[in-house]
Design a protein that fits this description.
Order of helices and strands: HHEEEEHEE
Largest sheet: 6 strands, mixed
Strand order of the largest sheet: 3-4-2-1-6-5
Shape: elongated
Distance between the termini: 7 Å
Strand content: 15-25%
Structural class: alpha+beta
Helix content: 40-55%
Number of domains: 2
Length: about 150
Amino acid sequence: MSHLKKELHDLCVAQVRRSMDAAELAISEAQKSSNDDTKSSAGDKYETGREMAQQETNRNLAQLNEANKLLVALNRIGTSGTAAIAEPGSVIITSNGNFYLAISAGSLSLNGEAYFAVSPGSPIGIKLNGAKAGDNFTLNGKTYIIEEVS
């Protein structure tokens, strides 16, 4: 099962890195656009263009910062060993889906199985954290029965 945890962890890291790469590319493009914008006789147009490029850069810097935080969170999660009680890094099999308790990364597909990467702070992550096989909980009208924790 630790092999599964490692693969899910690697998928999350790859997703975060793709997000970081996209943000860095967008920042570079916005800065290039701002630098290429030459001042014309229409000064307001120039200033508006530069301001829009700056806003785009700021948005992408915020995304890059969030992605960095996710990467730091992932680096704190162990990928080896098993636990009887769900904690960050655990794979939890329930009657309503498979979950990887790490970061909110959405659906991950591995070996034909779907796993939902969820943050321990998300509503379902809060319910999963500390759960053990045999436990159950209800969220949004759905009952989840914990079948396995590793």
